[in-house]
Design goal:
The strands form eleven sheets. Strands 1-8-9-5-4 form a five-stranded antiparallel beta sheet, with no helix packed on it. Strands 6, 7, 10, 11 and 12 form a five-stranded antiparallel beta sheet that branches. Strands 13, 14, 15, 18 and 19 form a five-stranded antiparallel beta sheet that branches. It starts with 5 loop residues before the first helix and ends in an 8-residue tail after the last helix. It folds into four domains: 6-267, Peroxidase, domain 1; 285-391, Carbohydrate binding type-21 domain (Immunoglobulin-like, Sandwich); 397-512, Immunoglobulin-like; 548-754, no CATH class. By secondary structure, it is of the alpha+beta class. Helix 2 (43-55) packs across helix 3 (86-95). Protoporphyrin IX containing FE binds at residues 41-42, 45-46, 48-49, 52, 84, 86, 142-144, 151, 168-169, 171-173, 175-179, 182-183, 233, 237.
C-alpha cells in the first residue's frame, strides 16, 4: 500500500502491533487462546462465531448484508440464532477500538484474524474498508435443525458453494462448542462440567482435530453425535458429499490452507456498495505521529515523529542508521534528519523497530515529503513509499506544543483547547472537528458524533497564523476522541487528545492579531507571547474597553452528575435570559453567543431566592429542561416556568452578572430536594460554570454582542447590552505581552468561540 491510507493504516496497526512500542494489543482477550473470563465461554470462539453470524444473512445476489456489523442490532427477537453472551461481549470489546478509521465491521473481521492466529491457526488474509450497517439486516443464520437442502440454499445465498459450505463449517467448529444454556436439547444440562460440549478435544487450538475425530468416529461434536438428532447439522453438512471435501482437508496443512482461504472469503463478503482495501501486509516503513510545530520565533518548524521499520526481512541489528531525507515545500532539496532507536514491537508474525526523530527545519522553505534511508552492513536502501515519498502537509497542522487538555472539572469534563497553525496565504474557514464516540449499548452499535467548531484567529507568526478552538467532553472519552484541524481541503487529521498536556508554554506571535484594530492592544510587529493556562481565573480584567471576542455558549456532555447546583451566566444573547430577575437558563442546543470584555470589575454577591414562577427569554429556537420538565421554544419567545417552587440564586447588584441556580423539587411534599432534572441541568449549564463568580468578589462586566463573527475582532457589538456579564468560562487566561502594551484578557472568551459539546 501507499501511505497514507486511512482505513488500511489503522487496521494495519491494530493487526500488527500486539506488544512493545506503541502496542495496540487488540488480541488481548484471545492471548492465550484458552482465555475464558466466564469458564466455558471461549473468547476466541466467540470472536469467530460473531463474524459468521454477522455475515450469514448476506444475500450476494441482492448485494445486501455480509460483514457489516449489523449483528449489533440483531441480538433480540426475531434473531433467535443470536442468543448467548458472546456476540455482545465481542462487540463491546471491539468498540474500544472503534473510530472513524476502524469500523465495527473491520474490527469483527480483525477479531477473526486475531482469534484464529492466537489459537495457532493460519493468518487469515485481512482487508479493511468495511462500512457499518445502521440498522438490523435480514434474519438468516443457519439453524442446527435446518435440513441439508435448506442449509445448502442458505450458504448459496451467502455466495458459498456446497463444497465451500462444508469447508467453512469445518473451519468454524474447531474453537469453542455448544452450550447447554443456549442449546439444552443438543447439550442437556449437567452433562458437562462447564455447561459446554466442545467441538473437538483441542477446543482451544485452531486445528484439524474436529475433522480427524469426525472421520475416525471418536468425535464428541454435539452437532454430529448429540442427542438431538434433528440438530446434527455438522453431520449433515460434512456427509453431504460423502465426506469428500472433509477428507480432503484433514491434514494439518490442508486444513490451515483451506481455512485461511474460506475464512477470508467470509470476511470479504460485504454489501456490494463496499470497496475493500488490498490485503493488509506490513508497510516496510511507516511514519507514525508525524507532527509539525512552529518553533518560538517563527523562523523554524519542529518536525517530529517516529518511523516504524518492519524488521522481518531486514533485522534491526543490521541497521546502523536510519535517516529521513526530506524535500522542501517546492519539492526541491534533500536534507537529512537523523533518528534514534525508540524500541521494538511485535505482532503474531511480524517484528518492528521504532525510530524517533525531532528536528528543526526552516519554516520558509519547509517540507513537502521525505524518504527513509537505512544503512546496513550490506549497503544503503531507500524507502520512497512507492515512488511518491511520504507526504507531509505544511498548510495546516496542530500546534501541539501550545494545545492543551485541561484537567477534569467537578462534572468530570475536560476542555480541549487546540491551536492550529495555518500557513500564510491559505484561505478558508479553519475548523476543529472532534469525532466523539457515542458508546455502544446492547443491541446497538457505537457511532461517531462529529462536532465542528470554527476556530478563532489568535495571532500571527512569521509564516503561520494561529487559530484556536475549544471543546468540552467527558474525561472518559479522552482515549476515544480524535480531532482534525481543517482549512479548505487541507487537514491535520485523526489526532489524539492523549498526550496533550494540561498547560502549555507561550505561543510565540508577532504583535497581536491585526483584527484588533479598534482596541488599544498594540498591533506593532514586536514579538508577543500568548500564554495559555488552565488555571481557573476568578478575576479578569482587560485594559481595553472594546476588545471583543466572539464566543459561543457551551453545553457539556456529561449525562449524569451528582451535584445539585450549577451556575451560569449566559449572555443576554444566550439561550435564555430573564429580563427581570436575571434568572437564566442555558440551552442544550449549542448556541452562538458573542461576548465582549470590558474594564469594569465589580463585586457580585449572590443571594438565594425561592420563587413561584419566573420568565425566561429564549432568543431563538431551543430546548431546555427545568425541574424535570422540558420546555421548547420554536422561535424567539418568552417562556414562563411555573413548575415551582424554584430556588434561584440572583446577584445582589443586578448589574449584569447572571445568577447561579438550584433546581429543586418542593420540600413540602416531603421529597428530598434532589432535582430529577439535575443531570440535564448540570449538563446544559456546565459550560458556563467556571466564570468569575461571587466567590472571587470580582466579575467581569461585559457587553453582549451580536452572534456573528468568528474572527478575533473588536466592535462586533451590535445589539450589545453594556454591563451584562457574558464571560462564559474562564479556566484559561492569556497574556499578550507586546512591546507597546500588555493586556490580560479573558482568553477563554476566545477559546469558547469554538466550544460546543456533545450530549
Ligand atoms: C450449518 C451452519 C452452522 C450451524 C447450524 C452452526 C451452529 C452452531 C451452534 C448450535 C453452536 C453452539 C452455540 C452455543 O451453544 O453457544 C455453534 C457454535 C459455534 N459456531 Fe457454528 N454453526 C454453523 C456454522 C458455523 C460457521 C460457518 C462458523 C465459523 C466460520 C461457526 C463458528 C462457530 C463457533 C466458533 C462456535 C463456538 C462458539 C462458542 O464456543 O462460544 N459456525 N454453531
Amino acid at each position: 500500500a501507499t501511505w497514507p491510507s486511512p482505513a488500511y493504516d489503522e487496521i494495519e496497526d491494530l493487526m500488527l502491533l500486539n506488544s512493545g512500542v506503541n502496542a495496540r494489543n487488540f488480541p488481548f482477550p484471545v492471548v492465550p487462546c484458552t482465555f475464558a473470563p466466564t469458564p466455558g465461554h471461549s473468547v476466541a470462539g466467540g470472536f469467530l462465531r460473531t463474524a459468521f453470524h454477522d455475515m450469514a444473512p448476506a444475500d450476494v445476489a441482492a448485494g445486501t448484508g455480509g460483514l457489516d456489523a449489523s449483528i449489533g442490532f440483531e441480538l433480540l427477537e426475531p434473531y433467535i440464532e443470536n442468543t448467548g453472551p458472546a456476540f455482545n461481549a465481542s462487540l463491546t470489546y471491539y468498540s474500544k477500538f472503534f473510530s472513524s478509521r476502524a469500523s465495527m465491521s473491520d474490527l469483527i473481521a480483525l477479531g477473526v484474524y486475531a482469534s484464529v492466529r492466537a489459537c495457532g491457526g493460519p493468518a487469515v488474509p485481512l482487508k479493511a474498508g468495511r462500512i457499518d450497517a445502521t440498522q438490523a439486516g435480514a434474519v438468516g443464520v443457519p439453524d442446527a435443525k435446518d435440513d441439508i437442502t435448506k442449509l445448502t440454499g442458505e450458504f448459496a445465498r451467502m455466495g458459498f458453494s456446497p463444497t465451500e459450505m462444508i469447508q467453512i463449517v469445518a473451519c468454524g467448529h474447531t474453537l469453542g462448542g455448544v452450550h447447554s444454556a443456549e442449546h439444552p436439547t443438543i447439550v442437556p444440562a449437567n452433562t458437562t462440567t462447564l455447561g459446554v460440549q466442545n467441538f473437538d478435544a483441542t477446543n482451544n487450538t485452531y486445528d484439524n482435530l474436529v475433522i480427524i475425530e469426525y472421520l475416525d468416529g471418536s468425535t464428541k461434536n454435539p452437532l454430529v453425535v448429540g442427542p438431538d438428532l434433528d440438530a446434527r447439522s455438522d453431520l449433515r453438512v460434512f456427509a453431504s458429499d460423502d465426506n469428500e471435501t472433509i477428507s480432503a482437508m484433514q491434514t494439518a496443512n490442508s486444513y490451515a490452507g483451506t481455512c485461511s482461504t474460506i475464512l477470508a472469503k467470509m470476511l470479504d463478503t460485504v454489501p456490494s456498495s463496499v470497496t475493500l482495501t488490498d490485503i493488509i501486509t506490513p508497510y516496510p516503513v511507516k511514519p507514525v505521529n508525524l507532527q509539525l510545530n512552529v518553533a518560538p520565533g517563527g523562523d523554524n518548524l519542529i518536525f517530529s515523529g517516529q518511523i516504524r521499520f518492519w524488521t522481518n526481512t531486514v533485522p534491526a541489528l543490521s541497521i546502523s542508521s536510519l535517516k529521513l531525507v526530506y524535500k522542501d515545500r517546492s519539492g526541491a532539496g534533500s536534507e537529512n534528519i537523523d533518528t534514534l532507536v525508540a524500541g521494538d514491537a511485535a505482532g503474531f508474525d511480524d517484528t518492528f523497530t521504532f525510530f524517533n526523530f525531532s528536528s528543526g527545519i526552516p519554516a520558509k522553505s519547509s517540507i513537502s515529503s521525505f524518504t527513509v534511508v537505512i544503512t546496513t552492513s550490506s549497503g544503503i536502501v531507500a524507502y520512497d513509499n512507492n515512488g511518491e515519498g511520504f507526504p507531509v502537509s505544511d498548510t495546516i497542522f496542530t500546534q501541539t506544543a501550545n494545545s492543551i487538555v485541561s484537567s477534569a472539572d467537578s462534572a468530570g469534563n475536560l476542555l480541549a483547547t487546540i491551536v492550529a497553525a495555518v500557513r500564510h496565504g491559505t484561505t478558508g474557514e479553519v475548523d476543529l472537528t472532534l469525532s466523539l464516540v457515542k458508546a455502544m449499548t446492547y443491541n446497538n452499535l457505537p457511532t461517531l458524533v462529529k462536532q465542528k467548531v470554527t476556530m478563532t484567529k489568535v495571532c500571527e507568526s512569521k509564516y503561520y497564523t494561529f487559530y484556536m478552538g475549544s471543546y468540552s467532553f467527558p474525561a472518559a472519552a479522552l482515549k476515544f476522541t480524535k480531532y482534525d484541524v481543517t482549512v479548505g481541503s487541507s487537514s491535520d487529521s485523526f489526532k489524539s487528545l492523549v498526550g496533550l498536556s494540561a498547560s502549555a508554554s507561550a505561543l510565540s506571535c508577532i504583535g497581536v492579531s491585526a483584527s484588533t484594530t479598534s482596541t488599544s492592544i498594540s498591533t506593532a510587529s514586536t514579538a508577543s507571547t500568548v500564554s495559555i493556562s488552565t488555571k481557573s481565573s476568578t478575576s479578569l480584567t482587560a485594559s481595553s474597553s472594546t476588545l471583543s471576542y466572539p464566543s459561543k455558549s457551551s453545553t457539556a456532555w456529561a449525562s449524569s452528575v451528582s451535584t445539585a447546583t450549577s451556575s451560569g451566566k449566559p449572555s443576554t444573547k444566550g439561550s435564555h435570559w430573564t429580563s427581570g430577575s436575571k434568572m437564566s437558563i442555558a440551552s442544550t442546543v449549542p448556541s452562538p453567543v458573542s461576548s465582549t470584555t470590558s474594564t469594569t470589575s465589580e463585586s457580585v454577591p449572590y443571594t438565594i431566592t425561592v420563587v413561584t414562577s419566573f420568565e425566561t427569554y429564549c432568543p431563538y429556537a431551543t430546548k431546555f429542561s427545568y425541574n424535570g420538565k422540558w420546555y421548547t421554544a420554536i422561535s424567539a419567545t418568552t417562556i414562563t416556568v411555573t413548575d415551582c417552587p424554584c430556588t434561584i440564586s440572583v446577584p445582589w447588584t443586578n448589574k449584569g452578572a447572571f445568577p447561579t441556580f438550584t433546581a429543586t423539587t418542593s420540600t413540602e411534599t416531603g421529597i428530598p430536594s434532589t432535582p430529577t432534572s439535575l443531570a440535564n441541568w448540570q449538563r446544559i449549564s456546565k459550560g458556563l460554570s467556571s466564570e468569575p463568580t461571587s466567590t472571587s468578589g470580582t466579575a467581569v462586566a461585559a457587553a453582549a454582542t451580536s452572534t456573528s463573527g468568528s474572527t478575533l475582532g473588536a466592535g462586533k457589538g451590535s445589539g450589545s447590552e453594556s454591563g451584562t456579564s457574558v464571560s462564559h468560562v474562564s479556566p484559561a487566561i492569556a497574556t499578550f505581552t507586546g512591546a507597546a502594551d500588555a493586556v490580560t484578557i479573558n482568553f477563554m472568551a476566545v477559546l469558547m468561540g469554538a466550544a460546543l459539546h456533545l450530549f
